[in-house]
């Protein structure tokens, strides 16, 4: 599977130590963090945003394209425009939490950011399936 290959590449190319923090959070914890004003980074593709919407106030920042390709440096440069400090907590969101595990572990292992969370189950199983609202934004 392409995600397994990407994971292997990411973990082989970079150091395996970290001072960072990466944790899956429940829907309830996510709702609390939203009240606290946490930054939400949605890493899905445009077709997924169009189909399922996004959690309100999320930043859309696609990581993998539909063919599984990615550009780590470009993505990190774009993330830096949203998450301004290495210490700023943020939540990664994808469809089922598979991509966020890859991205979050990469960021964690390389100590790029220190307070990284992911929505357990992703937007489909950790948000929409719980009856919570998403919104569709224009391009």
Provide the domain count. Answer: 1
| Overall SS class | alpha/beta
Quote the CATH topology. Answer: Oxidized Rhodanese, domain 1
As a percent range, the share of strand residues is 5-15%
Mean pLDDT across residues:
88
Regions with pLDDT < 50 over 5+ consecutive residues?
A: 11-18
Distance between the termini: 30 Å
In CATH, the homologous superfamily goes by the name Rhodanese-like domain
Output the helix-strand order: HEHEHEHEHEH
The helix count comes to 6
Spatial order of strands in the largest sheet: 1-5-4-2-3
- What's the gyration radius in Å? 14 Å
Q: Got a strand count?
A: 5
User: Helix share of residues?
Assistant: 40-55%
Structure commentary:
With 139 residues, this protein is an alpha/beta fold. The protein has one domain (2-130): Oxidized Rhodanese, domain 1. It contains six helices and five strands, in the order H-E-H-E-H-E-H-E-H-E-H. It has helices spanning 2-13, 27-35, 46-52, 72-82, 98-109, 122-126; strands at residues 21-25, 39-42, 59-60, 90-93, 115-119. Strand 4 (90-93), helix 5 and strand 5 form a beta-alpha-beta unit. The radius of gyration is 14 Å and the shape is globular. The protein starts with a helix and ends in a 13-residue tail after the last helix. Residues 11-18 have low confidence and may be disordered.
